[in-house]
Amino acid sequence: MIPELGHYALVLALALGLIQSVVPIIGAATRDSALMRLATSTALMQFALVAFSFGALTACYVLSDFSVVSVFENTHSMMPLIYKFTSVWGNHEGSMLLWVLILSLFGALVAAFGANLPATLKAHVLAVQSWVATAFYLFILLTSNPFLRLPQAPLEGRDLNPILQDLGLAIHPPLLYLGYVGFSISFSFAIAALIEGRIDAAWARWVRPWTLMAWMCLTVGIAMGSYWAYYTLGWGGFWFWDPVENASLMPWLAGTALLHSAVVMEKRNALKIWSILLAILAFSLSLIGTFLVRSGVLTSVHSFANDPARGVFILAILVLFIGGGLGLFAWRAPMLKQGGLFAPISREGALIFNNLFLTTACLTVFVGTLYPLALEAFTGEKISVGGPFFNLTFGPLFVALMFAMPFGPLLAWKRGDLLGVAQRLMTAFAVGLVAVAGAFAIKGGASVLAPFGVGLAFYVMAGAVVDLVERTGLMRLPMATVRSRAAGLPRSTWGTAVAHFGIAVSMLGIISAGTWGTERIVALKPTQTVSLSGYDLSFDGLVERTGPNYNAVVAKFTVREGGVPIGVMEPSKRNFAARETSTNEAALMARGAGQLYLSLGDTNKDGSIAIRLYYKPMVMLIWLGALVMMFGGALSLSDRRLRVGAPKPAAKSAAKTALQPAE
């Protein structure tokens, strides 16, 4: 009965989605406030129904109802409860239901907190959001129904893919989807603005918090996915330029560009057409990522594809929303007048520079990801585009962007003084040079470029600090005045500095771990020792352990530094009988910001066992930097000017601005 109720709730959500897709637009065209208000109630009801449907599917998994096909194929009665729960989205059908749950959640949030939006704009935004939701409701019901029943319920399930039986599955996909789907709101705002034929600074002020929320979730989601792959797959890497990894990076780059262009639009009423295009592209790239994972064109540890019909359906969704969105943009954008003018050397100019490099980097990743697929589709020839291509193309663009990053916040609006900003950044330049010299002194000439990368990271971190020092008057003004100015700074200013600092922290971790990491692959017998980067690991032997739904062989290693024991590492191999699959569980030991990483290989005929041992200096900074970036985004989001559902006086003021005659 529970599966039928969940399925029925999804059908009702589809019916409401169809109503919300049409009625509010009619209301906006006829200025009928009752019809426009209908969008709010239907959006809230859609979320309630999809949440009920998702809860019903979750109950099926937790209760091990093997009469449901997806439960039978992706869970096991002996699995720990946490993995039964995460199994809900550890498969195609459940993950798509999670997708529409988040999609309906964002629509409900706009309905609940969008009271300060002009009525017609809100009606159009919720209608467009419902177009997207309706398409995915149809996709799920017609090709990916998670509530399909088996004629006879088996006694036991087939178990979840062992690689997915990890706590990372509880965090990574939901955060990634919050990022992907969150850009649907930016898309809906863009299409609504094109339908109305007007866009102004108030539009940017309304769209920024939704974009910022999506960007924060996508940032942490990508980082979590990177860390999950790092410790789960056993290859010791944090980024492989896998097409599905690239599919998450592209909307992040476009979303980052949108956040910066929306600032120019809000402050100077400029970059209107460009901001609209970025809003369309950010969600379009999210849809392309969905297509890559679900269509069957890729074979990846991330993908769930097994039915070509699903790929065709999602391709139709891509054509409808990407093609339709870009077609509407081409038709309506020329009717939108550009805003204020500014000098090339200004904060607006710096933000345009930022957008230029971010979008070029995004295009580079797009071409490198899709060109091999297009070539194979049209010619049958298979090629691989990997790290060397992306490092040589994406890398220089990112370096140029990082070098310019500290300049932007210090430049004045409309017309800036580049020489004056360079003088204020002399301390940051000095910090960067000291870091370069220190890296050469400590690491020698093993890598010529890496020390300059380290210097660039420290320069950006120091530049973020200099920005705050300049704004607060630290070391120039009395401390009472400094505290007063610090308290009076907009939180978005603090957030910008923190986010810039965070990306430099991640860069420092990537350079250090990628350049100065060490690796050994050896075969050891019990009592033998291997050394790496000043650490000695003694192989104490193998033991067998039994888990809830697996048997494991665990190797025990005692780790010593300078002859003093500092801990034990226990990598293992797990065998899942239900799936007839084995997995490697790497062992990690943190040493400051670095890590020792130990992974087991095969057992040899002589009784020795192959091990892969890494030392990754500063590797934890990669993910720490992502958390710092997210914290910076949260600071910006908490700024009253960006707060969703602002107090009524501010809301009325914003609405009054929006209702001014179109330019």
Give the count of structural domains.
4
Mean pLDDT: 89
Structural class: alpha+beta
Taking pLDDT < 50 over at least 5 consecutive residues as the criterion, the unreliable ranges are 644-663
- DSSP strand content: 5-15%
How many angstroms separate the termini? 57 Å
Rg over CA atoms: 27 Å
Tell me roughly what share of residues is in helical segments: 55-70%
Characterize the largest beta sheet: strand count, sense, and whether it forms a barrel.
6 strands, antiparallel
Beta strand count: 10
- Oligomer type: single chain
The 3D shape can be described as: globular
Number of contiguous helices: 21
Structure in words:
- It is built from 21 helices and ten strands.
- The protein is α+β, with helices and mostly antiparallel strands and 663 residues long.
- It has four domains: 1-165, Four Helix Bundle (Hemerythrin (Met), subunit A) (Up-down Bundle), CATH 1.20.120; 170-335 and 347-405, no CATH class; 425-516 and 624-663, no CATH class; 518-616.
- A hairpin with a 4-residue loop joins strand 3 and strand 4.
- Helix 2 (33-62) runs antiparallel to helix 5 (92-113) and helix 9 packs antiparallel against helix 12.
- The longest helix is centred in the middle third of the chain and has 33 residues, at 347-379.
- The protein starts with a helix and ends in a 5-residue tail after the last helix.
